[in-house]
Amino acid sequence: MSHIQPILRHYEVVVLLRPDVTDAGQDTMRGRVRDIVTGAGGVEVRWETWGRRKLAYAIQKQQRAIYSYCSFIAPQTAVAEMERNLRLMESVLRYQTVRLADQVDLAKFDLEGERKKRTPLFLTPEEAAAAEQRGFERDWQTDGQDFDYRGGRGGNDDAIEPEEERS
Amino acid sequence: MRPSGPNGGGDRGDRGDRGDRGDRGDRGGPNGGGGPNKKKRFGRRKVDPFLADKTLVIDYKDPGLLRRFVTERGKIVPQRISGVCSKNQRAVAVAIRRARNIALLPYTTISGE
Question: Which residues of B are less than 8 Å from A156 in CB distance?
Answer without folding.
Answer: 43, 46, 81
